[in-house]
């Protein structure tokens, strides 16, 4: 079964956002998710689709707040080792909502796709690798630029408050990217575009799995959550 809609291909997120949502509602992918993740997972996915419908009339900045809160409330932190029995697995939004768990990359991926579906321009949002200074560990957040060259807002799951990057003294930016490219990060979440990185490779692999309609069943019994993020 193919999940072959161009919403998930790098060059065409915005043009096909509504087609992606229509496809989800009229395909077997939701039924497959129910088989993999049960009634609770199916309900979270349906709530996500309803949330997108209900949020379309909100302002851009309000949607940034709403999307950040929605996924922080509906996904609990769990490491890839525990959940997928893999060192670094980038889950799709359906997988993260299906199991109701994910690591920091999975929060960011789900928020990113949802904001694109709500019509937020792709050049306003980026993935950003950071170092979480309070525990000296690598972390990932989403950043949103309300205006070009303005200090971006940070959408995270460690600190769930939506704050400008210059108010997040607990983070050291490393680099940022979206579907249009990759940037080395400067102090305000800006930077120079570069070509290659492990993050972009993982991103492209995840896109290919979505395009093919692949859903991974959870690999463990959901018990145990061991990470600094789980402590907030």
Radius of gyration: 17 Å
Structural class: alpha+beta
What coarse outline follows from CA principal-axis ratios?
globular
Mean pLDDT level:
79
Specify the number of helices.
7
**Spans of 5+ residues with little confidence (pLDDT < 50)?**
1-16, 221-232
Strand content: 15-25%
Give the N-terminus to C-terminus distance in angstroms: 39 Å
**Spatial order of the strands in the main sheet?**
6-5-4-3-7-8-9
Strand count? 9
Provide the fold topology.
Elements: H1 17-25, H2 29-55, H3 60-74, E1 76-77, H4 80-83, H5 93-99, E2 101-102, H6 104-117, E3 125-132, E4 137-144, E5 153-155, E6 163-164, E7 171-178, E8 181-184, E9 193-194, H7 198-211
Parallel strand pairs: 1-2
Antiparallel strand pairs: 3-4, 3-7, 4-5, 5-6, 7-8, 8-9
Helix pairs in contact: 2-5, 3-6, 5-6
Describe the structure.
It is built from 7 helices and 9 strands. The protein is of the alpha+beta class and about 230 residues long. β4 and β5 form a beta hairpin.
Descriptive keywords:
alpha+beta, 232 residues, seven-stranded antiparallel beta sheet, 17% strand, disordered C terminus, disordered N terminus, two-stranded parallel ribbon
Structure, briefly:
The chain is of the alpha+beta class and 232 residues long. The protein contains 7 helices and 9 strands; from the N terminus they run H-H-H-E-H-H-E-H-E-E-E-E-E-E-E-H. A hairpin with an 8-residue loop joins strand 4 (137-144) and strand 5 (153-155).
